[in-house]
Amino acid sequence: MRHIISVLMENEPGALSRVVGLFSQRNFNIETLNVAPTDDPTLSRLTLTTFGSDQVVEQITKQLNKLIDVVKLVDLTEGQHIEREMMLVKVRASGAQRAEVKRTVDIFRGNIVDMTPSIYTIQIVGESDKLDGFLHALSGMHILEVVRTGVSGIARGEKTLSL
Amino acid sequence: MELLSGGEMIARFLKDEGVEYIYGYPGGAALHIYDALHRQSDVKHVLVRHEQAATHMADGYARATGKPGVVLVTSGPGATNTVTGIATAFMDSIPMVVICGQVMSYLIGEDAFQETDMIGVSRPIVKHSFSVKHPSEIPLILKKAFHIASTGRPGPVVVDIPKDMTMPNEKFEYSFPESVSLRSYTPPTKGHSGQIKKAVDLLLAAKRPMIYAGGGVIMGGASEQLTKLAKELGYPVTNTLMGLGGYSATDDQSVGMLGMHGSYEANQAMHHSDLILAIGARFDDRVTNDPDKFCPSAKIIHVDIDPASISKTIRADVPIVGPVIQVLEEMMGLIDDAPARTNQDAIASWWKQINEWRQVHGGRYDTAGDKIKPQAAVEACWRATNGDAYVASDVGQHQMFTAQYYKFSKPYRWINSGGLGTMGFGLPAAMGVKMNFPEETVVCVTGEGSIQMNIQELSTCLQYGIPVKILCLNNGSLGMVRQWQDMNYEGRHSNSYMDSLPEFKTLMDAYRHKYVEIRTKDELDAKMEEAFAMTDQLVFINCYVDPEEHVYPMQVPRGSMRDMFLSKTERT
Fold first, then answer.
1. Known catalytic residue at B178
2. Residue of B nearest to A23 (CA)
3. Looking at this predicted complex, what is its ipTM?
4. Same domain, yes or no, for B338 and B434?
């Protein structure tokens, strides 16, 4: 099963390599990963998605918690949560294709963030499935480049991951 | 406030932390630190002959005392030579602080002379590591390093110190940090009372209980509590390789070691038990055999300070995260208050069954023939040392024979690389113990293979006068490798034989140590006593043993715990 694990950790050099190293060392997989400092500059927030049985994910969270740099973590998929990923897609579009791309972007509530006479650069935000769906919808087009941020997430309601 | 250079701070901190000995080897990036050490006399530095040995010395000290061992090395090769020793300590949860020199901070990343990314190299084998960015951070970083190394589940911590952090002329205020708190590191101090209650209820109702105690009992300082609990309950106790001595092997309730080379009765009893109380043990693959076939009818109570150890390989029914000493004490309190027990008949018949199992193998070995059996050599060593020595071991058959036949009755006495299985560990580990317990008998049981992996330390023994006893069970081959080749490769002894061993007698002469040779069974006890009588000398006891001998019992691969080979011709 897919899990989204969100980690608050010390914003220090080496902290990220400890987290990433743990996954290869213990034979866990990482599907997506993103990390950035939080509003508290001493803390970074790292979000990763991984696949594994309950037992494997239990080990992942325990082993992450053991890292001294990890302050707190939550498996967002254990409760109600919001997840978002952003994608930028560069497609070649000319003639009639331009209108079709524009229409598809509107359907997916994306934005065209850059253009030239033959290129559209599109920004799409949503759950990973939606991003996959958008790429599928564009499959007849000439896609030049795709870049995704990986999943970020937050719990619904009162629950927070903070100090 | 005092002004000290970074190098002086390190020396001073170690003194203030109560460190008596550090083990290491100087080199360019560590020279400022070595100069600071030279200008004080509180902290004594032991110069080894290879940095790996420094880590094993520190490790031996840590295993014998429960306190962190301290290593000091230079950057690059000095640091990388410690890797095996750090990994050894990591696998066995041994507290250790390794201070590594590093090239000047402004050279880092430029492939400078003797530059290695030691933080990166050591990352998978440390509990944590620190890199010093400013000299004034040194006291607090070292305090954190000692705190992390020695609390919770202990482990090695690396502190990487660039040379310009220790400049003699750049002085900063020093004060010893009395305490330290880390928001992201709060080891458990107490087990969950509800869980402990649940565990005690199960314990009191069990019909075929087993207490399975690991190294955590020793490092957690809980041998006394374990003994009390086991005595009160009257249940059988088995120790892991790491846990030997945590419960006295000479006590009636001890069924010996369990696992791959565990006793027949321990493995049978585990397999048939209905309740396992696992304390400070981690269900290692050398214990469980095939996890899918592990103890099919047992409920499992697992007490450990590391939550990640619980349900890692074997699912626990009652997980208890906490210090073993506190959990055992709380259990004891509940047991004292419990009403009369109703399982006494069941326990009596359980003991009857176990005593029958004890008769099946009982640690027997073939005593016929002219050759000295390695088991007999270990038993002779046990007699010569009144079963009371600190015994450091290398890795291989001799290690298993020692685990089986040297009946440890006290904790902290059995010093062996259980998790990593590091050949070359024994001699330096024994040295670390002996330096700190000069009045005690310290013996390194080894083989002619293992001893050569750190034999250069005979020189360190000469320099510091470290009169350890080295009992070399010489079978002229890498015995455990050979055993596996006999059992799994139709006796093809690929590279498990060395046909140009040194003349150990000449070698000992060269290092001005003593040498005793044992070739026949009838001289075994007398020669052993002769060697141990030379208390102020290092004595190398070259004991020629039967090269054909195998270690038994031995679990059948991918079987359950009770599936064992009992000799070359028998299996369960």
1. no
2. B124
3. 0.93
4. no
